[in-house]
Specification:
Length: 429
């Protein structure tokens, strides 16, 4: 195998070794080791491409796994290094070149290959987890499998079936009057945060949109791309384009209430650039993708008066990495919160630092994930806020678990939930 095919070698040459990214990197902050920094990882990628370091070097593989792909390093890099893309290529080649243990391969096949791409299997997996949590089986499993206890403890509490009800598109009374918007429900979000999806739909309706969702679509492939399976990520990207375009043609905006997914879907053009069949269509699709916050900030009419819901106290907003670093979207969520009359918003120090969620990272490396969260907890306490708002289900999960560990009574809400509750005649999410 050509060693240069193992990493994005050309991109690695952009790094000028200035070190400006080091202080922003959560893993470097934990270890202080150059190998755990963006610059160190790029150095190792380049060494692998030049044949100076074997691709199965244990430190190299460990550092690929240790990185959260939070992309904070990209925001501060003066050379414009696209670290997220480099990491996806490096992880993909690492997975292909060096098989993990049978148990890990089985877990990856089950989670990434079977459950996430299927709406039905994701729902059944959550049903199982729901029963295990309610009967105490999950606690028993954590006691019997001490090595997995951290990950098991990090599994979220699965909501009841009633709370997991999906958004159903409302019939159009005056045919064709309102322009449509496609709302991505996603894979895990409908099972764990269905209230946020329903709230997103309500807010889009307040924007004057007819909201369309797909009952057959499950996963956009973001988790696959971030975890070294670009082949499956490309398959899921084409499936996503087909299924969402089937709803309302190829000119309708695609609104995504999950920052990790919106960042990934905006990059479909790049992901499929070498595919002669899909390349053009993927670029067109990607141009129509908007994160929920940027879309609503643009489209919510000025005359819609938002009033803070009863019981919502001081609020602080935590930037999702893939929204601020991945998409450069920082102002719209804050603007929207500031539009809510009576809402008191305070800034969270270090709001652009990663919370340690990073997709399935919190399950794979619970100890590191929790250690990274501790800085956020200290910053949150300093705000005196009773509500933490974010725009990404993974971050919501991390905050739920982190606040529960600290016995905090603070609420964690998706931006859409704050806005839906503030709408003039909100029926409640
Ligand atoms: S993506 Fe995040 S964790 Fe990874 S090297 Fe960059 S700053 Fe560090
Ligand atoms: S900031 Fe950019 S150029 Fe500087 S060391 Fe980090 S990755 Fe390299």
């Amino acid at each position: 195998m050509d060693p240069q095919s193992l990493v994005d070698y050309a991109a690695s040459l952009d790094c000028i070794h200035c070190g400006l990214c080091l202080r922003t990197c959560p893993t470097y902050q934990l270890t202080g080791a150059e190998s755990s920094s963006p610059r160190g990882r790029i150095y190792m990628m380049r060494a692998v491409a030049e044949g100076a370091l074997p691709a199965n070097d244990p430190t190299y593989r460990e550092e690929l796994d240790f990185c959260l792909v939070c992309r904070h390093c990209e925001s501060v890099c003066p050379a414009g290094v696209r670290f997220g893309e480099m990491m996806e290529v490096a992880r993909d080649s690492s997975e292909r070149a060096h098989a993990r243990t049978i148990l890990v391969r089985l877990a990856r096949w089950l989670g990434l290959g079977v459950v996430l791409p299927s709406r039905w299997w994701t729902a059944r997996a959550m049903d199982l987890l729901f029963v295990a949590q309610r009967t105490g089986l999950a606690r028993l499993a954590a006691r019997c499998l001490p090595r997995a206890a951290g990950s098991l403890a990090h599994f979220p509490k699965v909501p009841t079936w009633r709370e997991r009800r999906r958004w159903l598109s409302r019939p159009e009374t005056t045919a064709g009057e309102r322009p449509a918007a496609v709302l991505l429900e996603g894979c895990v979000m409908p099972e764990l945060f269905a209230a946020a999806t329903r709230a997103s739909a309500q807010v889009l309706e307040a924007c004057g949109r007819r909201v369309l969702t797909s009952s057959s679509h499950a996963c956009c492939g973001a988790l696959h791309a971030h975890n070294g399976d670009l082949k499956r990520a490309r398959e899921l990207a084409t499936q996503t384009i087909e299924r969402l375009d089937a709803l309302a043609g190829d000119s309708t905006p695609i609104v995504v209430p999950s920052a990790g997914c919106s960042a990934h879907m905006k990059a479909y053009g790049k992901l499929l650039e070498d595919d002669p069949v899909w390349s053009k269509r993927a670029s067109n699709f990607a141009r129509r993708v908007a994160d929920f916050s940027e879309f609503v900030a643009r489209e919510l009419p000025a005359q819609v008066r938002l009033e803070v819901a009863a019981g919502v106290g001081r609020v602080t907003y935590d930037d999702a990495c893939h929204l601020c670093h991945g998409q450069g979207v920082r102002t719209p969520p804050r603007q929207l919160l500031d539009r809510v009359h009576g809402l008191q918003r305070v800034e969270l120090e270090g709001s652009e630092d990663c919370c340690g969620s990073a997709g399935i990272y919190s399950l794979l490396r619970p100890a590191d994930s929790q250690a990274i969260f501790e800085r956020k907890w200290i910053a949150f306490q300093a705000t005196g806020a009773s509500v933490l708002v974010t725009a990404n289900p993974g971050c919501q999960l991390q905050w739920h678990c982190g606040l529960a560990r600290h016995a905090s009574q603070a609420q964690v809400l998706h931006l859409s939930q704050v806005l839906a509750a503030a709408l003039p005649t909100s029926p409640g999410a």
